[in-house]
Amino acid sequence: MTTIYLIRHAEAEGNLHRRIHGWYDALITENGFAQIKALEDRFRDIHIDAVWSSDLYRTCTTARAIYVPKGLPLHTDPQLREINLGDWEDQTWGQVRHFDPAGMAAFNRSDPAWRAPGGESLAEAGDRLERALTSLARQHPGQTVAVFSHGTAIRQFLANVKGISPEDWHTLSHSENTAVNCLTFDGERFQVVFDSDASHLPPELATLGKQAWWRKDKQKAEDVNLWFRPIRWDTERELYLGARRDAWESTHGLEIPFDGAGFLRDAQKHLDQSPWGVTVAMAGEEPVGLLQLDQERYSTDNAGYIPFCYMNPQRREQNLGVQLVGQAVSYFRPLGRDRLRLRCAPYNDRAQHFYRKHGFVKIGEETGSRVPLDIMEKYIGYQR
């Protein structure tokens, strides 16, 4: 009898930034690393003979919870990947909801006929994972194996094992990041010992506990998933200028004059680089924030620069700002940048706390500025 511990990866960028990541190679978040430590503690006294993982960064990194302390090699197999989400990859959930509401609705109800354009169906993902796990189990007869995979693929595999019909897939629960499933394999079929167990995570480390999309009772307000579009500069210049003024005066006060003309010149320069140089964050049809992106400054350091990251005051208690950081990552990473930089006043306590919470660290201080500014940086590259 082979025992399989099938484990979902720790919290990754897509979970936090509310972006669609199937085969997209996302990083682990700061909270995700704390989840990995909790998982390591859980398995400290459990014997494991082999460790396998999908070949994506988020699973390989989570697998370090077991293979590193136990001194085992890590084996990877792309057949253990998440469902392939085709044209939806790295779009925000809000974007797909806005432009393909029927497709999003079908996905959310686990419709067996659903398939992202250019991607896999739910059945194909579950069958692929079942074939991969069957092969691994037969390679390790009588052993105990830890396998690291992904939420939807695991969910569909468990539907196969439990014999849940496609019309009842919507009844399946969603698992927490680093949730553990335990199965046995007798050479022919799997049996579930337990599933979706995240008892090693205290509430403050849970990912799903902070989100509402998975709740069937809808006890919490629906999550706000943003989508992004380039600013319409001809008609929305005042929107930009008003946000800039609000950010300046709320941070620096009224004694240091607001240089609106200078900010407009900078915005135009960044728009000349890309239509995304000034990006509008949208909640449904409502503009709720702005993100300014500069391809040139700090490019010699392989960094992308964020001159302005702004959330409307009435939206600042909804934890939406991190989705703007996610948009910056999605913009700069395909350009080959492995870090983000921005400037923040040292006395802007709210912004300082937000950026540090999400992985930015101070690397210097701006010289020649009208106001004191810390230079802060976040690493967005891959390190295995």
Automatic annotation (TrEMBL):
PROSITE patterns in the cross-refs:
GNAT (PS51186)
GO MF annotations, alphabetized: acyltransferase activity, transferring groups other than amino-acyl groups; phosphatase activity
**Residues in N-acetyltransferase domain copies:** 226-381
* Binding residue positions for substrate: 8-15, 58
* InterPro entries membership: Acyl_CoA_acyltransferase (IPR016181), GNAT_dom (IPR000182), His_Pase_superF_clade-1 (IPR013078), His_PPase_superfam (IPR029033), PGM_Phosphatase (IPR050275)
Q: Name one GO cellular component term.
A: cytoplasm
PANTHER family attached here? BROAD-SPECIFICITY PHOSPHATASE YOR283W-RELATED, HISTIDINE PHOSPHATASE FAMILY PROTEIN-RELATED
- Name under which the protein is recorded: GNAT family N-acetyltransferase
